[in-house]
Amino acid sequence: MRMSTKKRGTFAPQFTLKKLNSMNGIVWVLDDLTINTEANHENRRILSRHEILVLAWLIFYTENRKYRDLLRECKVTPEECHAALQGLLELDLIRVR
After folding, report:
1. Model-level pTM?
2. Contact 60, 90 (CB under 8 A)
3. 9, 74, 85, 93: which sits with the fewest CB atoms below 10 Å from its CB?
4. DSSP-based three-state secondary structure for 4
């Protein structure tokens, strides 16, 4: 994990996630994601509908995660899924192993 300096001198993690290219676009390596059970909930923004669905799916399926199953079961587009995963990473609710 790489750290970057914000304007006020605080440090914020910048996450990079391994991605595989496919004919349909970007596919996340879902088995590399873990739930951060110690995430700080104070002063956190409200989660979007897509973030809630994706987070719940990641909690329910802990291994052998398939991208197509995530899209189908959460009924989200690849773009909505990508935005939800990015949002969850930024909020530190999920982490990359």
Report:
1. 0.71
2. no
3. 9
4. strand
